[in-house]
Amino acid sequence: MTPRGLPIYELEDEIVRSLSARxxxxxxxxxxxxKSTQVPQILLDRGLLGDGEVVVLQPRxxxxxxxxxxxxxxxxxxxxxxxGYQIRFEKIISKKTRIRFxxxxxxxxxxxxxxxxxxxxxxxxxxxxxxxxYGDITLARTLQLQETQRPDLKLVVMSATLESDKLEKYLAxxxxxxxxxxxxxxxxxxxxKPVRAENYPIWDLxxxxxxxxxxxxxxxxxxxxxxxxxxxxxISAIRxxxxxxxFVTLPLFSELPLVEQDAALRQYEKRKVIVxxxxxxxxxxxxxxxxxxxxxxxxxxxxDPRRGINTLFIEKISRASADQRAGRAGRTAPGNCxxxxxxxxxxxxxxxxxxxxxxxDLAEVVLTLKASGVEEVAAFRWLEPPDPKALETAEQLxxxxxxxxxxxxxxxxxxxxxxxxxGS
Length: 424
Hints:
By secondary structure, the protein is an alpha/beta fold.
């Protein structure tokens, strides 16, 4: 399919009309509709940017780089010229850059250094449903900027699934455009009975189910695992299986070298199995996938009261995340999704993930807000306010550490954002 054939182009004229009339927009479009790659191009090509650039916020480094590469390719350009990207320790942009993909902390740091965001004409908040702390804060800060010094600044909040009512009230006046996409049906299958991980490791279960599914299915396979360790074990199990010669089996996660990331997205003569973290859940569209095997787990950041720090825990994904993963199998043709848990277990899962503001320690974000001039953090324009007790605890900790001294605030906040980029 050519880019112009993607479902998002059905909304092209409405997007242009809406942003020409008022500078805020909520865009709800399913995975694979083309919103991440095509909307920034629509804004540029239809003259909505003037002489400025569009900044596209991404929650993950891997998606940031790969999406920028894709858009540069579509525009027959070199990465770093008209289209570029910026993540921690990596800045592939130039004075000619008009479309810039960045991770969330990058733009927040730019706001600290240049409060008016000179040269930025539009900001696209992609995959906003993930509700990362820095995404929430950046939206609030840019909304305030738009209402004061930059009424020309265009803000577009995009996602496959959004709580539109809450966002519409927060951004009002703000219209919502919805793309139905062109999803093909995906047959969902569950395990017949529960499996205990200590008796049947999830990587062995995934490999055995691939053996069963391989003869009865077509196309490439996407297997979701929570992290590098589980991905490595899954690949070993698949390569030792009776169907290993039918597939090219490859990993996909953020810490992979760039060459190996690119290898996972290439086409091969054989069918391909990609074993990935949740980086493949939303932003990235992997062509050719017709089968999803979902381990149902992810590494999710939460505050660990025992250790006193934010920690990544392996946890069951929500039903909303499971739906996102299943949808990867139905982008180009009817597909299949096997969930490695039972249907009754599925109904017991949370409907969706809590926003980070409800599950992380807030010391880092309080420090960042103080550095940007927010005196009363409790009165900040939160999309969803944090627990008052959690906020009080964070402020008391920072006071005890002497972190609110004027110079220390800016220095510590800058360091915190750099550390945040390292883990995204």
